[in-house]
Amino acid sequence: MIKLHDLHYVRIGTRDLAGAIEFATRIIGLALVRREGGVAYLRSVATQGDAPDHTLVYFDGDPSDQTIGLQLADPADFNAAAAAIEATGQRIRIGTEREASGRRVRQLMAFRAASGHRIEIVARPHQGDARRQSMRDAGLTRLSHIGLRTSNASRDAAFWMRSGMLRVSDRIGDVALLRMGTRHHSLALYPSGRTGLQHVSFAVKTLDDLMRSWYFLREQGVKILFGPGRDPTSSAIFLYFAGPDKMIYAYSYGMREIQPALDASYRPRQFPFAPQSFCLWGALPEMAEFGASVQGLPLTQRFAT
């Protein structure tokens, strides 16, 4: 079993680095840690506990060039983790010293998951400066979760479970919500006609932070794609919005925790792929992976039981 600590970073290529930095700092509320040539490192500022060096990286490149970094719980398990992943049939590449330095970690391994997602598992990440300030105080504390488009959600979920890295918390139709620690989900797998990142969600300190951002985003002309709403599976309150390069970002508050005492007895629930499974309050998504096509139906059919 590979024990992971948490999501650590997301790396995304962009055709407009300056524009992406502007959006991340002025709109999302991240702090620019540093810029090294064509690479910009950003992070949440209202961290609680660990203060990672960065949580989001933009670099000059193709927007489809995307990588998720996951932190290993115990660095001593690095070699065993690599062997366990290779045992599932995935080819592991150990990162070079230069790659590890660029990610501000001591060790990293890289592989592609079944649908081609680029994954890096890192050990001994550097701590950041907790005093770093952002252009806008959005109350961001950490990465909440990542949504991935997948050609086969069942196959991909099986890989994560077989490797022992993640466990299924719940399903919405074929959408799989997986956890690595106590948070209801850190990774969500959405069946789609293409693969790659579907959304990147940041946790906020308070509900007030989320609602202030809703008003702020609308004032700035940022397109709201879903919410505010409450997730029936995790109880989190959410807000999804459009970002650069067709990337979707989100804020999340109050996600349910599944404590270790309940872990052995917990059984994943199956929710229907229907609007009421994505929002208890009746908000409707403008995202295909969330069933956006239902918005054209009469209200009596959208929420038919």
Radius of gyration: 19 Å
What structural category do the secondary elements indicate?
A: alpha/beta
- Give the strand line-up of the largest sheet: 14-15-16-13-9-12-11-10-17
CATH topology of the largest domain, by name, is 2,3-Dihydroxybiphenyl 1,2-Dioxygenase, domain 1
CATH architecture type of the largest domain: Roll
Q: What pattern of helices and strands is seen along the backbone? A: EHEEEEHEHEEEHEEEEHEEEHEH
SS elements, strand count: 17
**CATH class descriptor of the largest domain:** Alpha Beta
In terms of quaternary structure, the protein is single chain
Strand content: 35-45%
Distance between the termini: 40 Å
Largest sheet: 9 strands, mixed
Share in helix: 10-25%
Please give the count of helices.
7
Mean pLDDT equals 90
Shape: globular
Low-confidence stretches: 293-305
The CATH superfamily of the largest domain is known as 2,3-Dihydroxybiphenyl 1,2-Dioxygenase, domain 1
Number of domains: 2
